[in-house]
Amino acid sequence: MGKFSNKISETVIRRMPVYHRYLTELIESDVERVSSKDFSAITGFSASQIRQDLNNFGGFGQQGYGYNTKQLKEQVDKILGIDKTYNTIIIGAGRLGSALARYKGFRTSGFMVTSLFDIDETIKNVSGIEVKPMRQVRDYIKEEKVEVAIITVPKEACKEVADILIDAGIKGIWNFSPYDLKAPERVAVENIRLNDSLMTLSYYMKEL
Predict the structure, then answer these.
(1) Domain boundaries, the chain
(2) Rounded CA separation 86/110 (Å)
């Protein structure tokens, strides 16, 4: 989890990608403006909650008019930091790393996967993306100004890999390894727990 400016709550931050997704759909449907009431019906959040969330970053709507979808999406892009491009690498060219390399959503979100790295030097290419030896990762990060790394290595290798990445200058880590990774304050970390999500699903199924 990264550090949020102006003490914006994590709950608010995690709603912003939802707003981004639905605004994108509205724009693709040629909807030029949307009221907080209509946006509430689309997102499932209350109109007052939406207004409060957006007011944390400044006022973007007009009373009686609502929100201009394109302008609001541009603002949300800036809030999320996806109005720029991040050079990104994937550590681990196994099944999960290879699957992530094929994900087209990275480009639309501003994350440009430029290479994968693996200790198995016989792997050369995944979905048209070059796989480089792990021993080259430090130099590559510095030479290519890589800011983001996606970790898909086994649990026992995660900390060692993360230490190498952080030392080389990585600013953000998306960690799929089943290890509770912590990093210095200068590095943002998002730990993804696939099993936790499955267990949550199991709980809700049990309650049905």
Answers:
(1) 5-79, 86-196
(2) 6
99-115 average pLDDT score: 90
Closest C-alpha among 107, 111, 108 to residue 73? 108
Rounded Cα–Cα distance for residues 16 and 13 (Å): 5
The whole-chain average pLDDT of the chain stands at 92
How do residues 119-145 score in pLDDT, each as one tens digit?
999 999 998 899 999 999 999 999 999
In the CATH hierarchy, which fold is given to the domain comprising 86-196? Answer: Rossmann fold (3.40.50)
CB atoms within 10 A of CB 73: 18
Is it true that domain 5-79 has CATH number 1.25.40.10?
Answer: no
d(CA 5, CA 56): 11
The CA R_g of the chain, rounded to the nearest whole Å, is 19
pLDDT in tens, 146-169: 999 999 999 999 999 999 999 999
Q: Give CA–CA dist 67/162, Å, rounded.
A: 41
CA–CA separation, 71 and 74 (whole Å): 5
For residue 3, the 8-state DSSP code is P
Kindly tell me if the per-residue pLDDT of 2 is higher than 50: no
Q: CA 179 to CA 177: how far, in whole Å? A: 5
